[in-house]
Amino acid sequence: MDMLYQFAFYAPLLVVCAERQSVAYEQVKVPKKPDVDCTIKIRKFFATLIKYYSKFIASLWAELMFVGVMIAYLYISICGIKALRTDMDGSMLLPSDSQSNEGIRIMNEVIWPDYLGINYVIRNPPDFSDPLEYRKFA
Questions:
Q1: Are 100 and 94 in contact (CB under 8 A)?
Q2: Transmembrane ranges (predicted)?
Q3: Domain count within the chain
Q4: Is the torsion defined by CA of 65, 66, 70, 76 positive or negative?
């Protein structure tokens, strides 16, 4: 659909608008400001700084340094992930005098033990069509 709009509307519009433009180009005149000696020194300083910086970035040493920093970053991240506690509870995130701790207590002590379904893996399941075998599991 985008190509249709480009060919049907945009291209003819460019042709129509281009007919009204003059053929000759006008040179843009920028007024010259007298450069202060201090700004020239600052520009030269940054130009040399950028030259050395760009040479360093394009060198092999910068690439090796980048790879080393990335390896260190990943190592620290993996060690941090391994050190995380997995027994985090909602009450650990809240202040001890918070009213939300009561809701978390109700969830932990009442709702989870009563309503959480427990799955058992049975190695030798009974024949569930036979009521005598099924009686032990009911």
A1: yes
A2: 56-76
A3: 1
A4: positive
Domain of residue 131, residue span: 100-137
- Identify the pLDDT of residue 62: 92
Distance, CA of 106 to CA of 92 (rounded, Å): 15
Residue at 127 is within a domain:
yes
User: Has residue 47 been placed in a domain?
Assistant: no
Q: Which residues contact 14 (CB under 8 A, 6 or more apart)?
A: none
Q: Which amino acid is at 51?
A: K
Q: How far apart are CA 99 and CA 54, in angstroms?
A: 58
79 pLDDT tier (thresholds 50, 70, 90):
very high
* One-letter identity of residue 6: Q
CB contact at 8 A, 104 and 94: yes
d(CA 56, CA 63) in angstroms, rounded, equals: 9
Amino acid at 91: S
